[in-house]
Automatic annotation (TrEMBL):
Lineage: Bacteria, Pseudomonadati, Planctomycetota, Planctomycetia, Pirellulales
Composition skew (Low complexity), residue ranges: 136-152
Listed name of the protein: DUF4375 domain-containing protein
Region (Disordered): 136-158
Length: 158
């Protein structure tokens, strides 16, 4: 099965069938979602679409050895939300505040720091696609018995 067909199937299972993915399917879905939301819509888009998944996304990034990416998401979360729990309401409030800040000719240091974090993320996020491709090929070519490879979590070790 090619990746596009596989991805369409995963999206259908999550959104239409409300299935909770696990193992290799979850790994591939999360890595692709983190990459896609952030690259297409920026850090704000990531939090807008995935605020409910944030904690799980960070655990997965760390388990896969992407501590630097997880750290940047954690810094962005702290800059934008502080200790406030992530919810639709808190996300909307932050977006309104940041939208007002963008209209200001002198953006805040918070916005400038978020820009720096985003620049780092867009350089490193393609690593997630490499991991996703490796995971997809292992999923298609091997059994799902536990294993680890170079300290990185593989689909078979989830």
């Amino acid at each position: 099965m090619d990746f596009e067909t596989y991805w369409t199937n995963l999206v259908h299972r999550v959104f239409d069938e409300q299935e909770t993915l696990c193992g290799p399917d979850e790994l591939i879905y999360r890595l692709t979602s983190i990459y896609g939301e952030t690259m297409v819509n920026g850090i704000f888009g990531y939090f807008d679409q995935r605020f409910l998944e944030y904690d799980h996304d960070l655990r997965l990034l760390r388990a896969c050895g992407y501590n630097d990416i997880a750290d940047d998401f954690a810094k962005a979360r702290h800059l934008m939300f502080g200790e406030t729990p992530l919810s639709e309401e808190s996300v909307n409030e932050v977006f309104e505040r940041l939208a007002e800040d963008e209209e200001n000719p002198s953006p805040s240091s918070e916005s400038a720091e978020l820009d720096v974090i985003y620049d780092r993320l867009i350089e490193r996020l393609p690593q997630l696609l490499v991991e996703r491709i490796r995971s997809a090929s292992r999923t298609n070519s091997s059994s799902r018995t536990p294993s680890k490879s170079n300290g990185r979590v593989t689909p078979r070790s989830l």
